[in-house]
Amino acid sequence: MKKIVVAGCGHGGLTAAANLAQKGFDVTVVEAAKREDLGYDWHDSVRKRDFVDAGLPIPDESNYLPADRMCYYNPKKNVKIVPDREASQSYAYMDRKFLINHLIDFALECGVNIIFESKVLSAICTEDSVVGIRYENNGGIVELRGDLVIDACGLYSPVRLSLPDVFGVSNKVDNKDVFYAWRAYYNKTDNTITDPESNIYFFHCGKAGMDWAITKDGYMDILVGGFGSLTSEDIKKAVKDFKTDYPFMGDEIIRGGKSDRIPLGKSLPVFVCNGYAAVGNSAYMTEPLSGSGIDLSIFAGKLLSETVSTCNGDCCVENLWMYNFLYIKTQSEKRYNSAIIKSLMSSLDASDIDFLMERGIMTEKEIAGTGGRYSIVQLIQKLAVIFRPRLYLPLISILRKTWLAKKLKRNIPKNYSKEVVESWAADYAKL
Fold it and tell me: 130: number of CA atoms within 13 Å, CB side?
């Protein structure tokens, strides 16, 4: 029986673990935290259909709320973009602690062995393959070997970071592709609910980043986020400003109050090698303009399990590349444009964002998830009416990168060849 080792209790890792256990593989998950400590202390949006598509049980409706559309504001708050309400109807606003335990319960039912309170330290490698992981348990170092290591340890995964460069997996974290976020639930002094409930502010209080304020029954969901950095002073200023805009926001933090770091670039170009596959944040599988990656992780976990099952657990890079190929082909390309817009935003200042939104250059198509249907001709038409010379270069760069993204999607090699994949990955990295 082929042995699968999953490093970390990420959503994608648990999805892959459950599906592979159902197919007869011997699956062990190693997780650093106690079970009761897993899951963020807040809610996030999840597409309900993703559970069915990934072979997961659908949570009972009593465990989630309907998700509301996001409204977007420029720094001066004089431009408000409200996407179509229908776009949010397929999502559920789900408690993250409930969600992770829902996935753990299903994995255990499928026969997955989960070892909690055991910190993953590194990969075990031979000259050309990953053959297991090292983890700490009860003060001792344990080596766990398998035919495949699935890396679900997150952005700063000790497994990915320990891989030799020659394996071809990107293992360095570029600070410009990291979103620093602080999130907390505050009490409310009355029952006011805004319409829309969810409001995102670009460059809030002059900080390069995105903040949000979401009004719910009984609490305010506040997120303060920065591109590349976030200070305690940034958080204090943003919270103070929100209390001015939302006078019913109280002073008490009732949940959360913690910080996290999220990958905000496109997915890694190569996230497989002999005996290794990354999933979720370990492979930068997030939506660049929201930071959410639950749906992508679950999709990737299912896709990985199908790839491994198809090759009967022969987890050489040539076989695992199909997982890499299909993910890029079906998911990552859809998010190229939003990744490019995120990159543009992080390189400009608040006055530039105001200008672009006030002039209708940045619209719902770019910032609300529909950029994939945005044509180069439309961009050229918009560029023609801009009278801000210092923006020409970055906006023309968008034209070039959008064209390159489409070309890369078409040209990703279907079959693995080290030289061909390295050449393609180098072009991909330039975006």
Answer: 37
Tell me what the pLDDT averaged over the chain comes to. 88
* Among 126, 411, 123, 156, residue whose Cα is nearest residue 261: 156
How many C-beta neighbours within 10 Å does residue 99 have?
Answer: 23
* Residue linked to tokens 């499928």: 110
Q: Which two tokens stand for residue 88?
A: 């949010």
Which helix (H) or strand (E) segment holds residue 7: the answer is strand 3-7
Strand order in the sheet with 26-30: 113-115, 26-30, 3-7, 148-151, 276-278, 272-273
Residue written as tokens 């170009």?
269
Q: Write phi, then psi, for 307 (nearest 5 degrees).
A: -65, -45
- 273 has which bridge partners? 276
Angle value at C-alpha 112, between 111 and 115, nearest 5 degrees: 135
Give residue-wise pLDDT tens across range 159-179.
999 999 999 998 788 777 788
Q: How many CA atoms lie within 13 A of 33 on its CB side?
A: 13
Half-sphere exposure (Cβ direction) of 132: Cα atoms closer than 13 Å: 9
- Give the residue from 161, 179, 182 showing the smallest Cα distance to 171: 161
SS3 state of residue 187: strand
Sign of CA dihedral 161, 302, 370, 63: negative
Distance CA 179, CA 229 (A): 7
Interval 344-373: pLDDT, tens:
777 788 998 898 889 887 787 767 654 444
Predicted confidence at residue 371, as pLDDT, reads: 43
